[in-house]
Amino acid sequence: MTTDNNALCPELLVYKDDAIMSQHTQDLLKSLAQKYIWWKTPEEAVSMPGRVIAQVMNIGDYADVQLLVSTVGDEALREVIRDAEPGQFNERSWTYWHYRLGLSDIDQVPALPTRRVA
Questions:
Q1: How far apart are CA 68 and CA 51, in angstroms?
Q2: pLDDT tops 80 at residue 98
Q3: In Å, how far are 1, 35, 42, 101, 113 from 8, measured between CA atoms?
Q4: Helix or strand or coil: residue 105?
Q5: What is the pLDDT of residue 21?
Q6: Would you call 5 exposed, middle or buried from its count of C-beta atoms within 10 A (0-12, 13-18, 19+)?
Q7: N- or C-end of the chain: fewer Cβ atoms within 10 A?
Q8: Dihedral angle computed from the Cα positions of residues 15, 17, 21 and 27, in that order, rounded to the nearest 10 degrees
């Protein structure tokens, strides 16, 4: 099932806080988690779908990224970028996704999230 890349994916209403996902989306995220979140079981990883999505956005191969985009849509990806945690993206991916998702103009990409020590 594909969605309009400019609309919030109805398959992934909110990717955080116990996301409501179709079986198709859940199966895709489990498959991607097995490849990109190798330190957890797919079931554990898919309980945090935003983490799976971020990992694919950061280090996914072209085919996996295209499949992810067609399944969850651009708005879900924008949410993941907006809520990114320190260390989830490298500089190259961070910049690419800001441009690709229309979140930044040329030379206006915000700094990567940083860890804060209290």
A1: 13
A2: yes
A3: 14, 25, 24, 13, 24
A4: coil
A5: 76
A6: middle
A7: C
A8: 80
